[in-house]
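Hey, sorry to bother you again with one of my protein questions. A protein chain has come my way and I'm curious about its shape. I'm sending you its amino acid sequence along with the C-alpha cells. I owe you a coffee for this, so here goes:
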Amino acid sequence: MEPFTAALVVICVLALLGLPIGLSMISGSILYLYMRGQDMGLVAERLLNSMFTGYVILAVPLFILAAELMNSGSMTDRLLRFCNAFVGRFRGGLAQVNIVQSVIFSGMSGSAFADAAGTGRIIANMMTRDGRYTKSFAAALTASSAVIGPIIPPSIPMVLYALVSGASIGYLFLAGILPGLLMALMLMVLVFVQSRRQNFPVEPPVPARELPAITLGAFPALMMPVVLLGGIYSGAMTPTEAAAVAAFYALLISVLLYRSISIGQFYRALTSGARSSISIGMLIAGALVFNYVVTAENIPQALRAYLADWNLTPLQFLILVNIVLLLIGAMLEGTAILLIIVPVFIPTAQALGIDPVHFGVVTVVNIMIGLVTPPYGLLIFIMQSITGAPLRYIIRDLVPFIAALILALVVITLSPDFVLWLPRQFGYRG
C-alpha cells in the first residue's frame, strides 16, 4: 500500500473509532513519514513551528472567550429585548427575532456553535413556550440562523481560511457582511411567507416609550462590532489584537457596566472557552501537519494539472467547488474541511484568476451550510439536544431553510462584485 493511501486509511479508521480528528491526522502523518523512511520528528517540528509562528491563530481562542463572556452575562438578554422591540410585533415575530439576533450576535462571537448554544437556546425556549411554535420548527430555524454567525465579522472560519490562503483577514471580514445580510434576508422572507400560511402568533408590541431604554441598554453590546472593525480599519489594531480587545470589551461591559457576571460565571467562561480552544487547536495542529504530507505528495499541483485538462472557466470551477463542499460538508466537520480540503483547491482558484477573498467567502458559506445538512450537521444535533424535538421532524422543517441558504449561496457565487463591493470601498484592489 502506498504511504499516502495508508495514511488516509489510518486517519479514517481512527476517526471512526472515536479518536479526535486532529490526533487522527497526526497519527496518519507519522505513519506516512515512517513508510517514506523520513524522520518522524518532522511531525513535532512542523506542529510546533506552525503553531508558534501562526500569530493569526491567537484570534481563535480570543473570539471564543468573547462569546463565552457574552453568554455568561446579561448581554444576550438585552440584545434579545432589543430585537424583539423592533421585529417582534409582526406575525411570526419571535421567528424574525431569532434571525435578527443571529445577525447582531454574529458581530460579536464569530461562532455558529456559540450562537446556537447561547442566544439560540434562549430564543428557542421562548418560541416553544406555551406551544406558540413547534419544537422542531424552533430547532430548525435556530440552527439555520446560527450559520450566519461565522459569515458576518468577526469570523473564526474566515481567520482559518486566511491562515491557509494568505488572504487578508480584514478584507475577508468586510466581504462577509453583505453575504451574511443576504442570507438573513432570505430566511426572513421565508419566515414571512410561512407566517402567513401557518398563521404564526403575533407578539404583544413593545410600547414606544420603552424603546429608548431598551436601545440604551443594548447599545454597549451593539458597539462591539464597531470597536472591532473600527480598530482594524483605522490601523490601530491587527485582527489578532482586535480579538483580544473584543474579549476585554465583553468582560468590561459585563462586569463594570451591566454587573451581570459573577466570579463563578467568569471561571466557567474561561474553562469552557479553554476546552473549545484546545479542541480547535488540536484540529488546527493536525491539519497543519497533514498539510505537509499533502504538499509532499504534490496533490494541489496534481489537482490543478488534472482540472486544467477540463478547461474549466472560473464560474464552472466555483460551481464544482460548491457541489464538492456541499457534499463533503454533509459528512465531515467544517473546520477539518477548511484546513484540509480547501487548501487543495486554492492553487487552481489562483490559476483561474478567482479572487481569493471572494473564494474565501464562497467556501466559508458552503461549510456553514454543511453544519445544517444531514446526516452530519452538528447544529442539528445541538438544537435537538436543546429542544428535545425528534430528529426527523427537525430535518423535515430544515429543508426549506436549507433551500433558502443555497439560493443565497448561488447569488454569492455568481456575483463577486456584490461580495467585494464593501472591501473595495476600504481600498481592496481585487
About this structure: The two ends are 44 Å apart (CA to CA). Residues 1-53 form one domain. Residues 29 and 290 are 6 Å apart (CA to CA). The chain is about 75% helix and 0% strand.
